[in-house]
Amino acid sequence: MSIRNPEAVVSAVREMGAGHLVVVPTDTIYGIATSLTGESAVQRLYEARGREREPALPFLVADVSLTALLAHPDAAALRLAHRFWPGPLTLILPPASDLPAYARTTPVAVRIANFPTLLPLLLQAGGMLLVSGAIKGGHPPAITAQEAASLFGGSVSLVLNGGPSPYGVPSTIVNCVVDPPVIVRHGAIADHKIWEALGLAHLGGPHSDP
Predict the structure, then answer these.
(1) ∠ CA(48), CA(49), CA(51), 5° rounding?
(2) pTM of the full predicted structure?
(3) 134 falls in which pLDDT band (50, 70, 90)?
(4) Cα-based distances in Å from 190 to 92, 96, 99, 118
């Protein structure tokens, strides 16, 4: 179903609120999404991808103000957020103390996508969703709804089609729990741009934009 269809958005919010999984488009690659409704929903997210719990619980949020509900960003994280959000940057941050206990067993990974088509879904879902990349071992990341459906169709309740993902590569992930921050996944933002934004260009090596 098209993500531009209001009825599809309502259906997706209902399914995720019940703890089910939905394929959603983003600016980087497609994702597998659900609401933070309980530990079982988190477990289903990881089972769909055939992997253990990730080092950080992954969230997409509608607005930077919502980050405070999930995490405790420091000055370095806020500098990166100001420079690259909305966009293909994921920040790993210490979890907020008012998250459910099961969601505080790891840091959180937070991103604001540069994909306005996704915004109505996020807003109707309370401004945030758990979203893990539509990636399965041995396959390239899904950048179309059809690719995501072929990988995860048996694990999801609904596939939302937003057209090909504009970037077509996963987001860059920066761990801001440590000081200085560390790039833990090279992605759509070149390393040197991260270091420049932090004033740490001397720590980075040459890396070209994909």
Answers:
(1) 115
(2) 0.93
(3) very high
(4) 17, 29, 32, 24
Among the listed residues 160, 57, 186, 162, the one whose alpha carbon sits nearest the alpha carbon of residue 114? 162
Domain boundaries, the chain: 6-203
Residue 140's region, left for phi above 0, alpha for psi from -120 to 50, else beta, is: beta
Residue 143 CA to residue 1 CA, distance in Å, equals 16
Structure tokens at 191: 């390393």
Q: What is the pLDDT of residues 159-208, one digit of tens each?
A: 999 999 999 999 999 999 999 999 999 999 999 999 999 998 755 543 43
State whether the Cα torsion 156-103-65-72 is positive or negative. Answer: negative
> Given the structure tokens 């997409």, which residue do they identify?
60
Find, among 69, 84, 166, the residue nearest to 127 by Cα.
69
How far apart CA 210 and CA 6 sit, in angstroms, is: 34
* Topology annotation, domain 6-203: DHBP synthase (3.90.870)
Phi, psi of 196 (to 5 degrees): -65, -40
